[in-house]
Amino acid sequence: MTFRIYDSATRSLRDFEPIRPGHASVYLCGATVQSVPHIGHVRSGVAFDVLRNWLAAKGLDVAFIRNVTDIDDKILTKAAENGRPWWEWAATHERAFQWAYDQLGVTPPSVEPRATGHITQMVDYMQRIIDRGHGYAADGNVYLSVASLPDYGDLSGQKIDEMDQGESAGTGKRDARDFTMWKAAKPGEPSWPSPWGPGRPGWHIECSAMATNYLGAEFDIHAGGMDLKFPHHENEIAQAHAAGDDFANYWMHNGWVTMAGEKMSKSLGNVLSVPNLLEKVRPVELRYYLGSAHYRSMLEYSEESLLEAAAGYRRIEAFLAKAASLSEVPVGQWTAEFEAALDDDLGVPKALAEIHNTVRAGNAALAAKDTAKALELAAAVRAMTAVLGVDPMSAHWQAHGAGGGDDAAHHALDTLIKAELERRAEARANKDWATADAVRDRLTAAGIEVTDTADGPQWSLADH
Prior knowledge:
Blueprint: E1 4-7, E2 12-15, E3 23-28, H1 39-57, E4 61-66, H2 73-81, H3 86-103, H4 119-131, E5 135-138, E6 141-144, E7 179-184, E8 199-201, H5 203-215, E9 218-225, H6 229-243, E10 247-254, E11 257-259, E12 262-263, H7 266-271, H8 274-277, H9 283-290, E13 299-300, H10 303-324, H11 336-343, H12 348-367, H13 371-387, H14 395-399, H15 408-429, H16 433-445, E14 448-453, E15 456-461
Parallel strand pairs: 3-4, 3-9, 9-10, 11-13
Antiparallel strand pairs: 1-2, 5-6, 6-7, 7-8, 11-12, 14-15
């Protein structure tokens, strides 16, 4: 394969070489289901859905695991603050995340394991760590001895003496730098039986146990947000190596979503929740926007940039609609430039530029009445947008409003334009050519292209 990945662990671009020829194994840290998802939460789902699509497009059979953290200090705190049972709070927000992923066309994972469904595997994993001399039990808690692992800190570049695990207090730690794998039961909190007494898992042990349970002691790619690099991913590696597992061969981390330079916070999350933003643009347009920046870069949110992305997507959509009015458009073959862009660490910005170049060439072919060329280019556009998960003609987006424009903004625009087209039609019926031309000129100046068809005038955003 020619696909290269930026490996966060080695801080270098590496050729992707799967452990098993013809197969790829990916573990993505999923949601801690404590609140309604905002776009900072779901960016990793979109970014690594493109990774999954590209691996599959390259001919690999992909096993893709995305976990759900459904027991955690934050979930217990939020549930208590709202007077709800912790399990109901977690289940309610797990459904909210599943809804958001579906709205954004994120392919369901091969399996989506919950932390609470894998306590047995976690207990077994911790026992292995203890048996190998890297963990210890104290006062019903179980800790990992950080100093026992020479490579601890390599992923994040942290110095061991300057680390703060940022976890709630436990008792019996031999070293303040050690972290908790099992938390002794507290009054009123959920707990499960274990050899060390009743308790619940720490945050980090769940992913080490679930990733290796489904993908094996060594697998290809571990992915997640860059904010998870420390302590979560660092501690996952520590647990895996302490248990004797090689764990992930490549690490991939996506950048944050920011607003005015600020990382997504609780207040911004309320403003930029997925349901709120879907009142401004269609789901496919929000996905296009979230996936438009390189996955490792920060995505600076603004409503202007969101609407610009939506307009850019509609230009792709409009070209395909014109081509489809001539003949059926199959999914064809992407261009060499598109393949080169994605092979270079999922270079989506360059891949999108190639899509828009192809759309412009397709519109030129339509204008020249070169139907065969236009359809060939349309088929290529479908192939490329399919990899990015935004093919307007896919069954998913046809069912979720692509091509129809059912969000409030698009509906309002459609209503206004149709009123203008009715005014133009009335003027033409009365042979008032000056008024008819003036309406068309206004629409053209606003970037609206009108095409007269046997079924009446149709409008689309002009390609610029």
